Amino acid sequence: MTIAPEMLDARYSAPQPDLSQSWLREAIAGVLTQLDTMLPRFTTTFPAASASAGRYPAVEKVDWTEGFWTGMLWLAWEVTGDDKYRAVAEGLLDSFEERLDKQIKVDTHDLGFLYLLSCVNAWKLTGNIRARDLALRAAELLYRRFNATAGVIQAWGDLNDPARQGRMIIDCNLNVPLLFWAADETGNSAYREAAVRHLSQAARYLVREDASTFHTFYMDIHNGQPLRGDTHQGFSDSSCWARGQAWGIYGFALGFHHTGDTTQPELARRLTHYFLNRLPEDYVCYWDLVFTARDNACRDTSAAAIAVCGLAELLKILPLTDPLRPAYVNAIALIIRNLSTHYFAPPQDGLLREGVYNFGRNMGINEPNLWGDYFYFEALVRLSRVWTPYFC
Ligand code: GLY
After folding, report:
1. CATH number of the domain encompassing residue 57
2. Using a 6 Å cutoff on CB, does residue 243 contact ligand 1?
3. Is residue 389 part of a domain?
4. How far away, in angstroms, is 286 Cα from ligand 1 center?
């Protein structure tokens, strides 16, 4: 049964000024200035996941996030043509190779975030064959995390750990494109089948009736039956973690690109309405959509940036006659303008203030984070030109 999306708030129907090319150019110039201040410090290391006390510590192979740095370097290279960005991104391939050789932090579904934004980019944008080989090795590792009985990619940890087996998470929607890419590249249809199956299980079990999402969901790996949904980074098992919802919007829109399955953009639309209808006055979401203005909760600017990219991707798919197109265009303009005006450019590192990494674990609260920076930059690039997304 197809469930109709929530009615979109009327506030998105009020006409908004367009995002002009000159506004976008200026916003991108601001991003490049900020990146240039960080570049000399991160040529052989990466900014950490979040910038505590205004500075990103330098790290290497410790998290799921290092690809966002190379992703930004490739965006900067595409926008400017300046080879200083490309040279650093290419130099950092050594780190991605060593990660695979020594199996450092690869027991995760986040191989997509890591290797799409580093190695697949280097291959697609410059024909770097070594990068292609590394990305294919990463794709094979991701494929091994697929459990055929459960029909899902195990999010985290040892594949033999019963506590972690059969657990999928909404974030993985952005990682399965590595499998679609590897299937196209090698002709190995098993990669595609795993990705399609995972997306279909995510649509069925991670999305609730009302189009909010569970962060994570457990499947029984012995009989393929659904067990339960819960959260890892949201406020509660029954609330809707804002970033998870944003991963869902973007991921299901991308899913259509890879599968042609028209139920996926409709799902992305339902998730979008749920998300947009719960935004506060400045259109930048709280870190969990359960919060309202009364709660004095922190924002998560990274979720806002991801949702903009997802909604922009959805707009590419929807028919030109879709009656809600103008409202979606308004929503994008409202969010990105508010991000740029009120949250851009902290005093030191990073692009967006007020991200939240993991509130429950007291990690990266009210700080810039690397993926928020990346998706803010991606949003500006994709709104300013014809651009092929790195997750395609
Ligand atoms: N994928 C992990 C996160 O969004 O924090």
Report:
1. 1.50.10.10
2. yes
3. no
4. 15
Residue with tokens 């990705």: 195
Mean pLDDT of the chain: 97
Region of 127 on the Ramachandran plot (φ > 0 left; ψ -120 to 50 alpha; else beta): left
For the question of residue 237 being annotated catalytic, the response is no
Q: Whose CA is nearest to atom 2 of ligand 1?
A: 171
Please list the helix, strand and coil fractions of the chain in percent, rounded to the nearest 5, in that order.
55, 10, 35
- How many domains is the chain built from? 1
Burial 150-172 (b: 16+ CB within 10 A, else e): bbbbbbbeeeeeeeebbbbbbbb
pLDDT at 1: 57
Ligand 1 pocket residue status of 171, Cβ below 6 Å: yes
Whether residue 392 is contained in a domain is answered as: no
Residue 368 lies in domain: 10-384
User: Active site includes 107?
Assistant: no
Find, among 388, 392, 383, 387, the residue nearest to 22 by Cα.
383
Rounded to two decimals, the pTM is 0.98
Q: How many helices (H) and strands (E) does the chain have?
A: 14, 9
Structural domain includes residue 2:
no
Three-state secondary-structure class, residue 230: strand
CA of 368 to the centre of ligand 1 (A): 14
Asked if 116 and 178 touch (Cβ cutoff 8 Å), the reply is yes
Residue pointed to by tokens 């709280």: 286
Averaged pLDDT, 316-321: 96
